[in-house]
Structure formats: C-alpha cells, structure tokens
Specification:
about 150 residues; 2 domains; three-stranded antiparallel β-sheet; 4 helices; about 45% helix; about 15% strand; globular
Length: about 150
C-alpha cells in the first residue's frame, strides 16, 4: 500500500502538482493511456533552440521580415489523442480541469471542483476521492467523443 501524499496546506504549487500527478497516474493505470514523453522532450528541445536563437539574435540582429521562418517554426503543433489541462490559481481553492480531443477541439469536457474535497485538514491527499471524480468526468468525456 502506498504512503498517503502529504502536502502543506496553502502551498498552491504543491497542491496542483499533486493533483496533476494523480491525473497522470489515473490515466496510465486505470485507463491504460500512455504518456508520450516525446512531446515533453520536443518542448525542451524547442525551448533550448529558442534560447540559442535569442542569443544569436542578441549579438547578430536580424530585421523582422527576415526572421519570419523562425517564428513560423515556433508555431508548429504536435498532435496527440487527448489533451488534459488544469488550472489552480494562487490562493484560490477552485481546481479546474479541461479534457479535450486534440483532433477535434469542439469535443471538450471542463470540470471544476474545490480542492477541499481532496485534502483533509492535515494536508493528506485523498486520492481515492479524486479518482472517483475522475471516473465520472472521463465517462462524460468518452460519451461526448462517441457522439461526434
């Protein structure tokens, strides 16, 4: 049995990271999705490439019309089956998650819940309660995606 995750209450970053990690755990263990690290590695590589280009631009200024190909390259998109994004504003107990089909952005299922439902007064993460809510949300999303 796993040791329960303990967080410091009012530490929004840690709370959001705990919830996000739990979504990944749910998707990979319960729904058998695979997390594609290729996208993450590509982002890091493009970020590094952007830093190199910024350094070059700083020392060898290129006027705007000539640097359009670089801007276009930075706008390239990478496809995936579903996209899950989350928001937890600082000092706000409302955690929002949006599940969407990356091929059809019209198919999306946002949901919002208070983090009070997932952490007790000592900061222990109630993962089973969170996963129970995720089950319902992903069922709703799959119904939406089957309609289209």
């Amino acid at each position: 049995m796993e040791k329960p995750v303990q967080v410091t209450l009012y530490d929004t970053n840690t709370i959001k990271q705990t919830l996000d990690d739990s979504i990944i755990k749910y998707l990979t263990t319960q729904l058998n999705y695979t997390q594609h690290q290729k996208l993450n590695y590509t982002k890091v590589l493009l970020g590094f490439f952007g830093c190199v280009l910024a350094a070059i631009a700083q020392f060898y200024p290129i006027p705007f019309p000539k640097n359009k190909p670089v801007l276009i390259l930075c706008q390239a998109k990478i496809n995936q089956k579903i996209k899950v994004s989350s928001v937890l504003p600082k000092y706000d107990p409302i955690y929002s998650v949006k599940i969407e089909d990356s091929k059809n952005p019209k198919i999306s299922h946002p949901f919002t819940k208070s983090i009070d439902l997932y952490f007790d007064t000592k900061g222990t993460f109630l993962e089973s309660a969170f996963h129970n809510d995720l089950v319902g949300q992903f069922k709703s999303f799959s119904k939406l995606s089957k309609k289209d």
